[in-house]
Amino acid sequence: MGNSALKAHLETAQKTGVFQLTGKGLTEFPEDLQKLTSNLRTIDLSNNKIELLPPLIGKFSFLKSLVLNNNKLTALPEELCKLKKLETLHLNGNHLRQLPAAFGQLLALKTLSLSGNQLRTVPTQLCGLRHLDVVDLSKNQIQNVPDTVGELQAIELNLNQNQISQISVQISHCPRLKVLRLEENCLELGMLPRSILSDSQISLLAVEGNLFEIKKLRELEGYDKYMERFTATKKKFA
To answer: Which of 78, 94, 169, 175 is most buried as measured by Cβ atoms within 10 A of its Cβ?
Structure first.
């Protein structure tokens, strides 16, 4: 992509606060963006070939939305965690195995999408994020859901298409969790904590495509309590 085209995008971004350059075969984060650290609210560099996010990402102190879907990122810099105003982070379709240690400092974060990466567990760093509403960890390599998940503040947790065979009973203690998606995993019915049905806030539990028949789930103790919540929620949105 020529310099003049990039220049035009930068000029537009300066006026609008939005820099969007998708599907252009970029192999690195455009360094010229650092001229706009105080302007930009949104950066979208999806469908490129970016392998590395430079430390200068931490300078975009007004950034609210960062979208880097379908790139080649294998790690994220600690500097990313300085983005105190960041509300939306989409990193679907990369090669990420873990999150930076300081990820819990992204206190404004509401939506996190990490579908189609190489995560092996639910990152503990997510548990300190008080405003987190939606977490998408589908299509990773997660095998179990640890005890720390009980502190997760999210309203929706998507764990579809992983390799999950164990779930901590603590998941039923998530204070705001209403939607739990566990489709196409490796769950035996005996490994699904009963308290999800009888004693949680969860009003939509999606478990199709595991190692049991859905009709067996309906026979479990506590299923009627779950259905009460499910029906009440459905009425609310009808």
So the answer is: 94
Q: Are strands 204-206 and 166-167 parallel, antiparallel or unpaired?
A: unpaired
| CA-based torsion, 38, 41, 44, 50: positive or negative | positive
Rounded to the nearest 5°, which phi and psi values hold at 49?
-130, 35
Of 199, 194, 200, give the one whose Cα is nearest residue 217. 194
Cβ atoms of 82 and 58 closer than 8 Å: yes
With contact defined as beta carbons under 8 Å apart, do 130 and 107 qualify?
yes
pLDDT at 48: 98
d(CA 135, CA 122): 10
Q: Give tens-digit pLDDT for 85-114.
A: 999 999 999 999 999 999 999 999 999 999
The whole-number pLDDT of residue 220 equals 95
The predicted structure's pLDDT at residue 121: 95
Helices vs strands, H then E, count in the chain: 4, 11
